[in-house]
Structures are given as C-alpha cells and as structure tokens.
Structure prediction request, 319 residues.
Amino acid sequence: MKKIKLWGQKLIRFCSRHLMLVFGILISLLILFFFYRAFLFGSLWLRLPSRWQAQIALNRLGLSAYNDPICHEKCFISREIYKKVVAANLDDESVEAAVQKLILAEDNNLIFRLELVEAVALSKQGVFPDYLRNYLEAGSNLELKDQIQELFVPGGIGLDELRRRASSGLREDRIAALELMASNSDSALAGFYLELITTDPDVLVKGAALRALSNLSVDPDWSDDNFLTQLESVTLDPATNQYLRRDLVMLWSDYLAEKEDWASQVILSVYEDEKFDKFSRLFAADILNRQSSNNYPKPEIGAAEWQEYRNHNVLWENN
Prediction:
C-alpha cells in the first residue's frame, strides 16, 4: 500500500513539473482517438488516396457481406458507397486483380462475390471482362452466373421483367432494376419513372427512378402537359424529400431548352418559397442566375447547415 502511495506521489510531482508535456500527450491521444473513430465509423477514409480507399472499401464490403447476410437500409447505403469506390478504382491493376481473385474464389462468401460483380458492372459500363465471360461458361455457382448474365449479356433480362422487379420487392433489387433500365435510355419508360417518383413510398426508389428519368433526352413526345403537371406537383409538394427536390430542380434545368417558360416558372417557385429547404433554393438561384440577367440572391447557409447537408448528401448520392 505504501509503495502505491509513493508511486502516486511521484506521478503527481512528475505531472506538476512537466505540465505542458503531459498536456501535449493528452491532446495527442485525443486527436489520435478522434481520427481512429473517424476512420473506423465515419467517412474520413474517403479522403485517403484512391488505392487506400479501394482497399478499405473491399475490406468493409467483405465484412458487411459476412456479418449482414440480410442487408437493411443502413447496410444497403454503406454497401453502395463501397461498391462505387471499388468501381472507381478498377483501372488500377492491383485493385482489379484483387477483385478478380475474390470473385473467382468458389469458397468465398457468395454475397461478397455478387456485390463485387455489381461493382465491376458499374465500372466497365457494358464491357464484358474475359474472366467473367469464362466463369459464365465454366463456373459452378448458378446464382453468380445468373447475375453475370443479367449485368453483362445484352437482352439477358427483358424489359417487362425489369419493370416487374422495379415495381415491387426488396429495395436493393428495385434500385438495381432501375439502374439497368436507365442504361438503355428508353424514352418509352419516362411515364413509368414518373409514376414511381410521384407515387412510390420509398424515397430511395424515387431517387433511382429520378436518376433514370434524368438520363433521358427531353422529348416533346413524352414531356407533354400532363407529364409536366405531375412533375411540377411533386417538385412543389412540401412533403417531398429535400434531396429529391434538389434533383428535381436540376431536372427542370434540363427542360429549359424545350419548355423554357414552364421550367423557369417551376424553378422560380422553388426559389421564392421559403418553406422549402435552403439547398434546393440555392440550386434554383444558380440556375436562374445563369438563365437570366436578373440577380437572385442566394439563401444564407451557415457552416453547421452545410456540414449536415454534406453528411447526408454522401449517403443520398451513393444510393
């Protein structure tokens, strides 16, 4: 007991003599702890060099596949981020080699392999890699072969089947179907996309449908008065998700060339209505200022508001 007391007294004397050193050590430990948590649980890893990002994304995607075979909303959002990071770095030979090895390993987790095939499809944009082509011919896992067929073989899934998948079922399956439909740029689907945007209860499905609609060139054959009325209604609905409204404002900017008066009025209505979020109004102001000689002041947005917007925007853009 005396030894413990003496040791405590020595520690107190040391700390009092070297107060700045002790303070510096404590601050350093707090900073290290902050960065550790930011890398482990936050999005700070997305600011690392690309190859490191890809490695972290692969590791996290693998852990998610093993730990969460049934993937719900938060898990799904995270996986979409990981897949897009992997896809963005597949031009790096070492990353592509690692992905190829993981996909072809028959003893590897099937969910992980399926997610990686989706990442390859995102990156290759229709180019069919030889190793996946070979697996389609000689591979042993039927579910993996089906996915390769769907993602890389033209006509592998019919349009009617894609519409059925996009209309109901698991969210991730619906979004995947909409992404496949968007790659076809079929203007006949404009009405189907609009129906999902205006009536579907799932905001992430709405977002996927809006991205697909935004991929279509504006055509008077489908952008008639009824179509634009419905689009205006969801844009100006106070209940519309702010990130969806922001993307709707951007869509209206695409219609300025063909439907200038209508599009300008909708964008102006978003800008002038202060019950809408500041960021949709900010985008509206930018579009109006580019479109006309008038000067539309931008909404004042504080640093905390910007940070909250960026944090949620990362999740929305990686769905």
Remarks:
- The chain has a mean pLDDT of 82.
- Residues 61 and 79 are 6 Å apart (CA to CA).
- Residues 19-41 form the longest helix (23 residues).
- The two ends are 60 Å apart (CA to CA).
